[in-house]
Structure formats: C-alpha cells, structure tokens
Design a protein that fits this description.
The complex is a heterodimer of chains A (226) and B (353). In chain A, helix 5 (138-152) crosses helix 6. Chain A has an 8-stranded parallel β-sheet, with helices on both faces. Chain A has a single domain (8-216), classed as Rossmann fold (3-Layer(aba) Sandwich), CATH 3.40.50.300. In chain A, helix 7 links the parallel strand 7 and strand 8. Helix content of chain A is 30%, strand content 18%. Chain A is α/β, with parallel strands linked by helices and 226 residues long. Chain A has 7 helices and 8 strands; from the N terminus they run βαβαβαβαβαβαβαβ. Chain B has 2 domains: 4-236, Rossmann fold (3-Layer(aba) Sandwich), CATH 3.40.50; 240-348, Rossmann fold. Chain B has 12 helices and 14 strands. Chain B starts with a strand and ends in a 5-residue tail after the last helix. In chain B, helix 3 (56-68) runs parallel beside helix 5. By secondary structure, chain B is of the alpha/beta class. Chain B has helices at 8-18, 34-42, 56-68, 79-84, 86-94, 121-125, 143-160, 170-174, 215-236, 256-270, 311-319, 338-348; strands at 4-7, 23-26, 49-52, 73-77, 99-105, 137-138, 163-169, 176-179, 239-242, 249-252, 275-280, 282-284, 300-305, 325-329. Classes of the chains: A alpha/beta (226), B alpha/beta (353). Chains A and B meet through loops of A and strand 1, helix 8, strand 8 and helix 10 of B.
Chain lengths: 226, 353
C-alpha cells in the first residue's frame, strides 16, 4: 500500500481536505512496517484537529511527533520546533510533514528552504478533496497547486485523492475525487499516488483504483462526530 | 441538492451570503477566523462590504450604522470579543435595528483559551449589555443546522427589528461536516421605512437613537420592547425532544453537547437505562413548554454543558421544583465525553437501574 515514496513526505493542500488524517495514517503505516518515523506537525493554520493533539497515542505506536516549540497542544501560536530541521538534515529519518492548509500553511516550509539540500529526497503531496467547495474543478485544483508551489518553493510530486464525506463516505465520493485527480494529472503530469478512504471501502471501489488504495482509520474524529 | 464538505465557520459565511447579507464588520479572534476570511474573499465580488475594524467595539458600531441604513449585516467573534461588543448590542436592541451576531464560544473567563466552551450562556440569554433587553439566541448542533439557523436569523432580525445571536462553540466553528444549501425561507417582511437612507427632500429625516432622557418617554419605549419579546417567546421558541417518554433521566443539552448526549443515549440503552434529551434550539426564548409534562418515571433532569453550570439555572426554573435538577459539565476547553454522561446518569439512578 505504501509505494516507493521519497524519504520526506510533505502533505499539503486546501484546509479541511483530510491532510492530517492522511499524514497520521501514513506515519502509523510506516511505524507498522517497523520504522521509527517522524511526524512533523507544522500546521499553524488550524487551531483544532491538529496531529499534535494525538501525540501521546502516536508516540505509543512508535512515532516521534514534533509539534510546536511551545508545548501546548491547545495553543495557536506560529511557533515551529527547531527540531523540525532534523527532518531535512538527518538523512536517516523517515518522515511525514503535516503542513497547514492553503498557501499560508505552505509558506511555513520556506523556513526550511536553506535545509532543502537534497530535494530529490522529498515528496510534496497535494491532497484533493472534490467535496470541498474550493477544490471541485480541475482549474481550482491547479490554481491551488500553483499557489502552494509558489509559497514553498518545491514542486508537487504526487496527487492524493482524499475525497470523503467523513464517516458517511461512499465509494461514489472516492470515485468522484479519482476522476478529478486523473484529469488534473493529465493536465499537469503529476501522478495520482493514492486513493485514500475508510478501510471499509476497499471492496466497493472499481478495480482500477484498488492498486493504490490507501485504507485509513479516523484518528482525529471523536466517536460522537459525524 | 449538492452536498459539500464545509467547516462550520465557512458555512456561516456562505449561509449569510445566501440569506442576502452583503456587509460584514469584524475583528479576528480564534476559533472563528474563517468567518471573516470567507466574507473578505466573497463579499467584494458581490458588491458588498467587508471591513476588518480596529476593534470589536468599532466593528459592532459599524454594524449599528449599516443596520440603521437598512442593510443585511453581520458580525462575528468569540467570547472575549463578544463581551467587547455588548455596549453596541444594547444600543442596537434599544434602537430596534436588525443584525446578526455570531459567537463561536471559546473557554473563558478573561482571555481564557481557544478550545470550545459554552460559558457565554448567561451573556447571551440575559441581555449581556446594559438594560432591559433580550435577543433571540439560536444554538445549532450541526453544520447543516447552522446554515439553516443563520438564514432564519436574518429573517427573524428583520421581522422583529432586533439583533439576533447565533451561539455556537469552537467545535461548531472548526468541525467539518457535510452540508447542503436550501433556498432560504422568506418571511413577509415589513418595509424598512425607518432606515436612514436620505429623505430625497420628500419626508422628515428618520432618526435612530437609543438616548431617551425623559423617564416618561423611556418607560413606554421599554414597554414596547417587552411587548415585542412576549410575541417572540410565543412564536419563535424552538426545541427538540428525543426519547423523553418514560425516560429514567432527561438530559438537557444544546449545540455540540447535545451530540455527545445522543451518543450517551445509545450507550445507556445498551445498559437498559432510558435517557431522554431536551435540546433547546433557541436559548432565548428558553423552551419552558418542553418541560411541562414529566413522566412519573423520570427521576431527574440533567443539564449537560461545556460550562461550570449556566443553562442549569433555566432548567431549574423549568422544573419548578417538581423533580431534582442535576448538572454535569466540563469547562476550560474540555468537552464532556459520552461515557462521562453515562456515569453521571448511573450515579443519579443510584448505581444503575
């Protein structure tokens, strides 16, 4: 399920698209494969639903979580831990970087640009949720990709289809996102790396989507949430 | 209708625009910043106005001005910011002008924290500012209901010439949910012939004012407001009752916490306990009618809140001493969990049925 991705997987996209759930699930899968992955949460956009809120649970699974330099999971200050440099500097580390939404979130990556010494080791993934009002058309997605690339100085290397409706997601949602991602891919030449969805959708999606299906659990939603 | 995935704050902005709101004045504060962000992006292309004011006080007074000119206008903030707006809200209520105020509550007092809370119940339902006034307060429990109540709030504001509050919490503002946008339900609204839009030399100037120095002028004005509030109480009170018939305990919860209670209802059911829910949708007027009939089987009301206990006072008024009123709350930014509610219910019933 995890493909031959590069050492540092940077997850970007429009806010509210499912970046954090994907980032957390990706880190969990890396840990399951026996590594000691790092999840760097550099989201300074969202005040709630950030991966650092789940730090204790994730540390137990063998994931090193780097969040804000201020230890306060509930605080919204634009403070990034200096330890985040290690993701780029320490070439032995397997990392997932959870970036804040939109261009403003991706701008934060600029802080690390003088540490981008081995860009061939980084993947910049762009998450697409076709159910979000601002990323429903090819044009909208391409504009987002351009603004994020401009913000952080890296090129998007993979599209991630996370199209969902939370716990009531159907295969139809994921197919809709797959079609949008495919057409963006045709235009931009950026490959669609994963179709991300709840594990229960595995048998319901068309065969052509199965080989890069990335099953997830919802780590960020409490049980009373829809 | 197309279903979209939206954050509560975005949905507030989209619903307001759909309801005809074209003017927004605000000042940033977490956890509601996506509302001004949305309005800043969407209003100018529609010919509307977005102003990030120099303060909350300035923003509410811009709302006062725009409302006086007959515009559909909104402001939004979160707890400490809403506290700053109270003077303006009192002026707007006294001047009988329509506007919508959104409060995505965060933990307080003081600057408190940025996590969700429901500790502005008193401020919202007891007037908040100075003087004898109230305003309708809507407490949505989902993003879909937020959309519908924001649309309704503009109609109610125009119908009664009153400020109306949408009282959410940070969770409603920040949570993503699926949502669709129905056509707003329109009321038969009176013409805004009081608006200060220029006389055209054809009539006397309209005057909007909250200053009435003579007691014999102010008293009848207050009486006029009070008469209006009686009509609102009679015609606009909204609530939902779930599972209340023969319930062992009836929880009372609004907004986000009613969702937690619904989850607790299922968990109680598994243990053979019948937990009911009264969910006020309007907090003012409070739905006292929902408490009129109590089954002889019901041992207590249980107010569950993200506060140290505020709505529980209204529940006590509603219970009127007939059965005990219990309280369970988490505060400071913590959200009660369904299991905690179940434990409290068991505690009330003496360790289970």
């Amino acid at each position: 399920m995890i493909q031959n991705d590069r050492r540092v997987r940077i997850i970007s996209g429009h806010y509210g698209s499912g970046k954090t759930e994907f980032a957390v699930n990706y880190a969990v899968k890396l840990a399951e494969l026996g590594g000691k992955p790092v999840l760097a949460d550099i989201d300074i956009i969202n005040p709630y639903f950030r991966s650092r809120e789940r730090a204790v649970q994730l540390e137990e699974l063998g994931i090193r979580v780097i969040g804000s330099s201020v230890y306060a999971p509930a605080v919204a200050v634009p403070a990034i831990a200096a330890e985040c440099y290690s993701v780029f500097d320490n070439r032995a580390v397997d990392a997932v970087v959870d970036v804040g939404g939109d261009r403003a979130g991706a701008d934060v990556l600029n802080r690390f640009s003088d540490h981008f010494t081995h860009p061939e080791e980084y993947d910049l993934f762009f998450v697409i949720n076709a159910n979000r009002p601002s990323t429903q058309s090819e044009k909208q997605v391409e504009e987002y990709i351009k603004s994020i690339e401009k913000g952080c100085g890296l090129k998007v290397t993979g599209l991630i289809n996370t199209t969902h409706m939370l716990k009531s997601t159907t295969a139809k949602d994921l197919v809709k996102g797959w079609e949008l991602s495919q057409s963006v891919s045709m235009q931009t030449g950026i490959p669609v790396k994963y179709n991300v969805g709840l594990a229960r959708l595995a048998d319901e999606i068309p065969d052509e989507m199965k080989n890069n299906f990335f099953p997830i659990e919802l780590y960020m939603r409490d049980d009373w949430m829809s | 209708m197309e279903k979209l995935l939206m954050k509560g704050n975005e949905a507030v902005g989209a619903a307001a625009i759909k309801a005809g709101c074209r003017h927004f004045f605000g000042y940033p504060i977490t956890p509601q910043n996506e509302i001004p962000e949305y309005m800043a992006k969407e209003l100018p292309p529609l010919g509307g106005t977005f102003v990030q004011a120099e303060s909350e006080i300035a923003a509410i007074n811009m709302v006062y001005g725009a409302a006086g000119a007959g515009a559909r206008v909104m402001t939004s903030s979160s707890s400490p910011g809403i506290a700053l707006k109270q003077e303006g809200i009192s002026y707007i209520a006294a001047s009988e002008l329509p506007c919508v105020i959104v409060n995505m509550m965060r933990s307080s007092p003081g600057l408190g924290g940025i996590q969700p809370a429901q500790a502005d119940y008193f401020m919202a339902t007891r007037g908040g500012g100075n003087g004898d006034y109230y305003m309708p307060v809507y407490a949505p429990a989902s993003i879909q209901e937020t959309v519908e109540l924001v649309m309704e709030a503009f109609e109610v504001a125009d119908f009664y010439c009153t400020p109306v509050m949408i009282l959410g919490d940070g969770m409603i503002g920040q949570m993503m949910e699926s949502v669709e946008f129905p056509e707003p339900k329109k009321r038969n609204l009176p013409a805004k012939d009081w608006a200060t839009v220029g006389t055209g030399g054809k009539r006397k100037p309209n005057i909007i004012n909250s200053l009435r120095i003579e007691p014999d002028v102010l008293e009848p004005h207050i009486q006029k407001l009070l008469d209006k509030y009686e009509v609102i109480k009679k015609d606009e009170t909204l609530y939902e009752k779930v599972n209340c018939e023969d319930a062992d305990v009836i929880a009372v919860a609004y907004g986000t916490i009613s969702r937690v209670v619904r989850n607790a209802i299922k968990k109680c059911e598994e243990e053979g306990i019948k937990l009911g829910l009264i969910r006020p949708i309007t907090l003012w007027p409070f739905p006292f009618a929902a408490f009129e009939e109590i089954s002889p089987n019901t041992k207590a009301f249980l107010s569950v809140e993200m506060s140290a206990g505020q709505m529980v006072d209204d529940v006590k008024i509603a219970a009127n001493g007939r059965i005990p009123v219990e309280f369970y709350g988490r505060y400071g930014g913590n959200v009660p969990k369904p299991d905690e509610v179940v434990a409290k219910v068991k505690d009330i019933l003496g360790g289970g049925k």
